[in-house]
Structures are given as structure tokens and as C-alpha cells.
Amino acid sequence: MNGILYLEDGTVFYGKAFGKQGTAIGEVVFNTSMTGYQEILTDPSYAGQIVNMTYPLIGNYGTSSSFNQSKKIYAKGFVVKELCGKGSNYTNEEELNEFLKKMDTIALSGIDTRALTRKIRSCGAMKCIITSEELTIEEMESIIKNTEFGIEQVKEVSRTEIEHIKGSGPRVAVLDFGIKNNILENLKNLGCDLTIFPYDSTYEQIMKINPQGVFLSNGPGDPTSIPEVVEIVKKLVKVKPTFGICLGHQILSLAFGGKTYKLKFGHRGGNHGVYDIERDRAYITSQNHGYAVDPASLEGKDVVVTHINLNDNTVEGMKHETLPVFSVQFHPEGAPGPEDSAYLFDKFMDLMDNAVDAKAI
Which PANTHER family does its entry note (predicted)? Predict the structure, then answer.
């Protein structure tokens, strides 16, 4: 079926619809990864967004349940230049088109994704409709004007019940803002005894398990939309070693009195260069965020910037000068390098071990 992509500034792209038939509304963003389309689609951090892939051929290795980062697709829609209808890989269980149908996700192929990406880079991320229905331009314009975006996204993706994953190592309280399966796997592989809490859990509920460390996960949207979480984190960092990733990093900055701001078009892909100031080394990282921490807002807050983005010099990591607390903006569980940034999980383990040793003295 024919499909249309309509941007809020009136720009129209024509393509071919696949996946679920219908209409999707969201914020259009672009991802520069060459592979990992299934992980991208099932990453809860993409809630509310229509993902435009810059790599021209998508679907060439099919899909596999082992690649899923959550129980469903949270992205609103998917846009590609060319869809490969036959996946060639020994892990392939289902073609991408069928996977998207099963996951109720609307997609378009045949779009000039390079032109769309250049549009987003010039004008910034914007509201978008993709549809296989016979909607007029006037109807799509009206839908965009009358649709609210980005409301309660963390609530949409977070667990609703506390979950325990038994391990032989330190007890870790994981605050779920939309956590990816790969992050939990990294913590499990280190032996951590994990208790995963919904985003709106209270300080008392978290402290009831007497965690040896606190992990703040990735997630979608604006960190200032969940001020109640920031207040809880303010208490947690004073008593427990804490590690934050992506949205967790932004929440930590707010907890220490910093500020965040929305990037023009965000960082999304598996090839983003980051400089680790302490190690004097550059890393290739996996990223997915639309907001960043204002470095000027951290001045005088006992917080030190530890990582810088090599493309635009935005803050990619920080640590507290006296408390056992640190965070990164990128996703260290991703393996574009491969596994370049896995040392950060070891750093978290060391912080928890040292905290236990200090109490024993």
C-alpha cells in the first residue's frame, strides 16, 4: 500500500507502507546505526518517537526474540529507505515486516531517508505522521496540531510491580525508567542480586531491601517531567553508591542542582565518539537521547564532568567529588566497539565493594 510521511512544517514524503496498516503520530528522529534495528525498536527509550534509519537497507538479517530489549515495541513508527523482505541469518525467526505486524507498529519504506535526516538536522526533531490511510494534508495538519506529545512516557514504559532477580553478589536497587534487557544482563553477569523497582517507588520501599548500590536506568522523554523521582534520588545518593545511565544520568544532574536542555536533534546511533577525560581515551559508544546536561549548571555543585561528546562537546558523563556516585549519558551495555565501555559496570561494582569495606572497618 502507498504511504505518506507528513512533518509538522508541511513537508511531505511519499513511500510504501509495511508492518501494521494505519496511522502513527510521534516525534521523528534519526538513528545512524548500520545494524540493531530490532534492538532500537524495542528500546523503551524510543517511546513516542518515529525512528528514521539512515542506513539504506534494513531487514536483511530478519528478527529474533533474543534481540528484544523489552516485551514490545515502544517506538510509534519506523521509516526506512529500502526494506529487505528476506532475512539471511541463522538466528532469523521472523521477517521484519511480519514482526512489525505482530507488534502493531506502522512503518514506511521507499522514503528518501537522507533527505529526511538532513531536514531533521537543519530544523530539529519535529512532530510527524506516517500513514497508509487516505488522509488529506488538511486532516494530517489538524491531527498534529491537536495531539499532545511526550506525556507520561516514563510511566508508559516502567514496570508496575517490584521484580527480584536472584544473584550471589551485591544487592542492587534498579530504578526502572524504561530499562533495556541488555543492561540487566550486564548486571546479572556480574552476579548482582537485583530488585527492580517501578519508577514511582518510594524512598522507603527502595531502602527496605537495604541495597548496597542503586542503579538509575535509561528511559524516554524529558527528565524534568518526573520531579518526584529527582527528590527520591536526592536522598538515595547521600546514603548509597549510585550509577546512572542516559535518563538516569540526567536525573542525577537534576538531583545535584544541575539543569538539562533539549538537543536540536539528539544523539541516536552506535557510532558516537566520547572522550573519557580521566582515562585520556576515546570510545565509540551507543547512544539514544534527546536531552543533555548543561555543564555550566554543574559549577559549584561538587560534580566533575568525566566524559565529553567528540561531535558537539556535550556532557557525556560526570561524578561527584566526595560521594560514590557517577553517571554516563551513553549506553555502556551496547557493543559497537565491541564492549568498549563495559568497564563502567566494573567501576560500579568497585564502588559497592569499597562502601561495604568502609563499613566493616
Answer: CARBAMOYL-PHOSPHATE SYNTHASE SMALL CHAIN (PTHR43418:SF7), MULTIFUNCTIONAL TRYPTOPHAN BIOSYNTHESIS PROTEIN-RELATED (PTHR43418)
Model confidence over 171-207: pLDDT tens digits? 999 999 999 999 999 999 999 999 999 999 999 999 9
d(CA 331, CA 347): 15
- Choice among 128, 192, 246, 267 that is catalytic: 246
* Beta bridge partners of residue 175, listed in sequence order: 197, 216
- Tens of pLDDT, residue by residue over 253-272, are 999 999 999 999 999 998 89
Active site annotation includes 246: yes
Cβ atoms within 10 Å of 298's Cβ, excluding its own:
19
Domains of the chain plus CATH, in order, are 2-149 (3.50.30.20), 154-360 (3.40.50.880)
Q: Taking 90 as the threshold, does the pLDDT of residue 152 lie above it?
A: no
- Non-local (6+) Cβ contacts of 277 within 8 A are 305, 306, 307, 308
DSSP-assigned beta bridge partners for residue 4: 14, 131
Residue range 98-148, pLDDT digits in tens: 999 999 999 999 999 999 999 999 999 999 999 999 999 999 999 999 888
CB of 100 within 8 A of CB of 58? no
Beta bridge partners of 298: none
Amino acid identity, position 216: L
| Binding-site residue ranges | 45, 219, 221, 247, 250, 288, 290-291
Annotated binding-site ranges for L-glutamine? 45, 219, 221, 247, 250, 288, 290-291
